[in-house]
Design goal:
It catalyses: UDP-N-acetyl-alpha-D-muramate + NADP(+) = UDP-N-acetyl-3-O-(1-carboxyvinyl)-alpha-D-glucosamine + NADPH + H(+). The chain has about 325 residues and is an alpha+beta fold. About 25% of the residues lie in helices and about 25% in strands. The radius of gyration is 20 Å and the shape is globular. The chain binds flavin-adenine dinucleotide (FAD).
């Protein structure tokens, strides 16, 4: 049975009685997302630091759903918003410590910022992060990657706070990384990570970052309201063609539903032209999946995380 609004408020009040962070009811999430769509968080929590987050998680009833959000560059939040508590890490989770052969970074740091710090410190191998618009927390959760590398290849460990409020350090192996996925425990939040770097000349690293950025400008709609790659590339045993090739061959380039469109520039990207809703974007993605399945018998799987409830769904 779902909780009544009054009992949710009561459970939230108990859990947050001593927080030093910020708790906002009915906080609009759409403006925080890359797609600029989606409803409100029933409760939005920005913890002051790891200790604050752990203490709230310990007190928060397991009945209340918890959703972590980073830079919202790989999510569609549905128009009816997210029930329960949405946690967004910001200040208090953005320190960067440079070590001889790597960096220890807070999970709220943007990937691009980490790539720049690494370059300045003469640590190579993290350039791929320069073109990924998410946060380190989202990168660990999604095993973000590009240009032949990914988080799995550079991560030493990640510190997480579990749904029951325990702070644990997990070695990379324990995160069971796969292509654009990790085995992060359900309801856990990444708070810090150590990324390995290889000593190299700062100017050469900076030049590689510039190349990556230029290549992206040419091939991806990086200035549009988008969510990055919509579908995972199929397993090569199932289809040698990448997701974008299947979508293109199925005639979906430029396909529209309302103001949602399959990007003309890179057809594994959906874009919000102006007034699209989350339902338009998700519906368009499902149209694409259907066409690809009908024409090639290949089932595409969403890489974008879709979360929350449709407009008009009761809490
Ligand atoms: C223009 C564009 C280009 C992109 N290019 C790439 C690319 O080349 N390679 C690539 O891999 N991705 C790419 N992406 C997708 C996206 O940037 C990555 O998946 C990124 O890692 C998501 O990070 P985020 O902080 O935005 O996470 P969000 O989108 O906020 O969340 C994504 C998932 O991570 C979870 N999450 C977020 N923060 C935490 C945390 N602290 N602890 C636990 N879980 C968390 C969320 O619950 C959600 O399930 C691109 C996106 C855009 C818009």
């Amino acid at each position: 049975m779902s909780l009544s609004a009054a009992s949710v408020t009561e459970l939230v009040r108990e859990a947050f009685a001593e927080t030093r962070g910020r708790l906002t009811p009915q906080a609009p999430l759409g403006p925080r997302t890359w797609f600029r769509v989606g409803g409100a968080a029933e409760w939005l929590f920005q913890p002051a630091d790891a200790e604050d987050l752990a203490s709230v998680m310990q007190r928060l009833s397991p009945e209340l759903p918890v959703t972590a959000l980073g830079a919202c560059s790989n999510v569609i939040i549905r128009d009816g918003g997210l029930d329960g508590v949405v946690i967004r890490l910001a200040r208090g989770f953005s320190d960067i410590i440079i070590e001889e052969d790597g960096l220890v970074v807070g999970s709220a740091c943007l990937d691009a910022t980490v790539a720049e710090y690494a370059a300045q410190a003469g640590l190579g191998g993290l350039e791929f992060l320069a073109g990924i618009p998410g946060s380190i927390g989202g990168a660990v959760r999604m095993n973000a990657g590009a240009y032949g590398s990914d988080i799995a290849a550079v991560l030493d460990w990640a510190e997480i706070i579990t749904r029951d409020g325990s702070l644990i350090r997990l070695e990379a192996g324990a995160l069971r990384f796969g292509y654009r996925r990790s085995g992060l425990p359900e309801g856990a939040l990444v708070i810090r990570a150590r990324l390995r770097g290889t000593p190299d000349a700062p100017a050469e690293i900076a030049a590689r970052i510039a190349e990556i950025r230029a290549a992206r400008e040419l091939s991806q709609p990086v200035r549009a309201r988008t969510g990055g790659s919509t579908f995972r590339n199929p397993d090569p045993d199932i289809s040698p063609r990448k997701a974008w090739e299947l979508i293109d061959a199925a005639g979906c380039r430029g396909l529209r539903r309302g103001d949602a469109q399959v990007s003309e520039k890179h057809c594994n990207f959906l874009i919000n032209l102006d007034q699209a809703t989350a339902a338009d974007l998700e519906g368009l993605g499902e149209d694409v999946r259907q066409r690809v399945a009908q024409q090639f018998g290949v089932e595409l799987h969403w890489e974008i995380k879709r979360m929350g409830k449709a407009e008009g769904t009761p809490a």
